[in-house]
Amino acid sequence: MSGRTGGPGTVSGGPPEPPEPFDPARLDLADPYPVYRRYRETDPVHAVRGGHGGVAPTTWYLFGHAEVAHVLAGRSFGRTSPLTARSAPVPDGYVTLRRVVENWLVFLDPPRHTRLRARVTPPLGAAAVAALRPRVRETAEELVAPLARRPVVELVEGFAAPYPLLVIGGLLGVEAERWPWFREQALALQQAGGTRGDRTPAALDGAERAAAELDGYFHRELAARRTEDRGDLLSALARAGAEDPSLSGSELAATCTHLLTAGHETTTGLIGKAVLALLARPEVRDELRADPGLLPNAVDEFLRHDPPVQMVTRWAYRDTELAGRTVRRGDRLQLVLGSAHRDPDRFPDPEVLDIHRDGGRHCAFGLGIHYCAGAALARAEAEIGLGVLLDRLPALAAGARPGVEVEYAPDWVFHGPSRLTLSCRPSLHS
Asked: How far apart are CA 388 and CA 321, in angstroms?
């Protein structure tokens, strides 16, 4: 493929130098893209051989768009290891955590995935989301109002985290006053993520407790909805369980936990990174403030340029070839979405944030049967939330030059700022 030779790691007059084994823990969390480029140009299907005398499966890191898209859409790959029948990256000994996470849609294959997704998709589809937009805007405006009066704003805690959590919580039908508790449980669950550099036994114990808390809560709420339909998503899922006995209570409760956690962490990362991109590019910020009609396309470009999910996992269900490399049944594939979105074979000038490009060709929401069921809601949340921030937050006003402090959590599944502090200085042109 073009664009994959002669880059970093190339010896003059010879073949590219083989890169060192790829290790996400060694990446710069704020800017992994130079490393991605090196692998994309020298070894786009990169093997990290299994340990334990070769017994453990090989892990393949895929950096090119063509390979990533092929695996996402292909039926030769799925979410469950054909050798262990496991999907979720949860160690042994964490029984509740494993049971909850392995029932998440993102870790299911057909036919269970097909049956459960059919019940979740309608309340998250385009028509349903269109009806939700006034409520989403109201939520965003209520959160931004107090921030607009503060000289120092912590944007993650003050807006980017509670905003999508309140939206998905309202859709599910849970109490708004519970959002700090839900946020606490969601952060604890994240500690179980397979790419985190700080995954310790204590963190996994916390994730186990959070899984038990959320599982118990949603079992109780689903039981209450069986006798009282409140017109929310929990009621719809309770009704689905009554109509289809093959849908277990554990599947339905786990689906609620999945919607609550994944449904807000991705949007939190997207908003945080979009704000950072706008602060670094005041001309783009000003263009969006002047023409909010550009926001839907801009959201797709933010998703392409710096996606909130950098890597996703698949397993090979049969021996296959990828870019001339032999992938064996049972091998694990890590699809590096952040690299695929910067592939010049797919996106011209991929390093440039261009809110006018056809950004909808990205893989941020997946492809094929695992295309994100909440994509329409995530897009609406980001579009509305960024629009309100641009309109109301002094740090994003024309001419503003805020001080910025940012920290990233060591996580490549839900990737983005864990803290984003803006010191709002008065505009010289206001």
From this structure: 47
Two tokens, residue 73 = 């859409």
- Pull the structure tokens for residue 37: 């480029």
pLDDT tens digits along 254-304: 999 988 887 788 999 999 999 999 999 999 999 999 999 999 999 999 999
How far, in Å, CA of 234 to CA of 219, rounded? 10
Is residue 194 scored above 60 in pLDDT? no
Asked whether 77 and 317 are in contact (CB, 8 A), the reply is yes
| Residue 56, CB-side half-sphere exposure with 13 Å CA sphere | 9
For residue 13, pLDDT beyond 60: no
CA angle 75, 345, 372 (to 5 degrees): 40
Distance in angstroms (rounded) separating the CA atoms of residues 145 and 126: 28
Phi-psi region of 349 (alpha: psi -120 to 50; beta: other; left: phi over 0): left
Can you tell me the distance from the alpha carbon of 334 to that of 348, in angstroms, rounded to the nearest whole number? Answer: 24
Q: Phi/psi class of residue 324: alpha, beta or left (left: φ > 0; alpha: ψ in -120 to 50)?
A: left
Interval 80-87 mean pLDDT: 81
Confidence (pLDDT) at 411: 84
407: left (phi over 0), alpha (psi -120 to 50) or beta: beta
Q: Mean per-residue pLDDT for 101-115?
A: 85
Nearest alpha carbon to residue 343 among 39, 65, 15: 65
Q: How many residues does the chain have?
A: 430
d(CA 101, CA 280): 37
Pick the closest to residue 311 from 257, 347, 364, 262 (CA basis).
364
Specify the residue for token string 């000003």.
286
pLDDT in tens, 21-55: 888 888 899 999 999 999 999 999 999 987 545 56
Q: What CA–CA distance (Å, rounded) separates 201 from 164?
A: 29
Q: How many helices (H) and strands (E) does the chain have?
A: 15, 10
Closest CA to 5 of 68, 71, 64: 64
Instruction: Name the residue with tokens 């503060």.
Output: 150
